[in-house]
Task: structure prediction
Amino acid sequence: MAEMIEIDWKTIKLQIIVVFVVLLILMVWYAVIRLEWQNPVVTLNMKYPAVGPEQKLSFSVSDTGIGLRKVWVGIIKDGRETVLSEKNYPTPGFFGGKAVYEDIVKLTIEPKKLNISDGDAVLRLEVRDFAWHGWLNGNKTLIEKEVKIDTVPPTITVLSKTHAVVQGGSCLAIYKLSKPCPVTGIYVGKNFFPGYSGYFKDPNTYLAFFAANYDQGTETLSVSVTDFGGNNSTVPLPGYVLKRTFKRDTISLSQNFMARKVAEFNVDMPKNVSVVEKFLKINSDLRKKNNDLFESAWKKTEKDMLWDGHFVRLARSESQASFADHRDYRYDGETIDKQVHLGVDLASVAHAPINAANRGKVILAEFVGIYGNTVIIDHGFGLMSTYSHLSSFDVREGQTVVKGEIIGRTGTTGLAGGDHLHFGILVHNLFVNPAEWWDATWVKGNVLNKINAVKLMN
Ligand SMILES: [Zn+2]
Result:
């Protein structure tokens, strides 16, 4: 029996060595994985470095190595640390099975509930991964951001006195805030007109040009402001919207005009579609698209008052159509369309030189559909003048022009019958009645005197 259980020590030794080497290789391999040096990546999106009464905070965390271990969020105020959020991720398995490599952390900070007072604080984000660095605590990414805790709503003091605005008319409001606010302006019904600082010595004094649409209801006016922490304040603006009536007008479309213009616009419709349908597509769809371009022009406005005095109209011209004329388009004895005319048509001689209505900067000089060749001059703080149906341009985009400078010539481009200038005034995103801006008495009483009165107070 003894020779049957003789042990082959040589083989066993070899097997042990093989197992040991394999284990060693695996351990080294795992250690290499766990000893990665890639720090987790944290992306914090905060619009402003401020924490309001209910501050929403969102940030993304990711790790390209072994996986995320822990996210810690805290706020340090007056040397005291308050934990806002703590999140632990599952341990990755030997082969990295369940590791979390990316996450989005969302939380709401309510300073009052946490007993944190207003003032300067530091927001701290710490993210660790499952690597063995840092005494097995993992690679660490730390973000410390200085923030201002602010839970007090701003106060508004309206400095301008009267704000009576006629339907289709313009107005100016001036107000002072208790602190800087990124969003401030005037509400006329649902229309919001942003206010701007930087004109008065006091940086917390804002001015806002606003207007009532031609069909504006008699809604109340209000000043609405929101500070960096999201605290909102709204106060009524003393004033009202006055109703007025607008003219009705009939535009008779000749067969010749229809054929010519429809051909010019090259409408993308089948050949058998009638000339009327093609015209309607131009007069409604294209008009809407073109109006959208005007309504977004204010985004380029300068935060400065570039103009002075009243605006000038086309020299030696006659008005052919007024602002907010309610037009019936008649063709072949029938009313085929209705539109509201959002400018004033001025006619002089053919190819008459057009003067800049006031000092400003050319923010557009190009062909704009039914408006034809068009120039938009920005006068600053959301006030702009527009010139359409030009036969030629004398200015380029980006150019500064003085009052009276020739910017182009009148013409018939776009949906114009005869040679004329279609002149418009925009207050922010709304076309208004230019007649007010041509009237020196109106400009003085409604704009310049208001500004001067505030200048004297400040
Ligand atoms: Zn017109």
In short: The first strand starts at residue 41 and ends at 44.
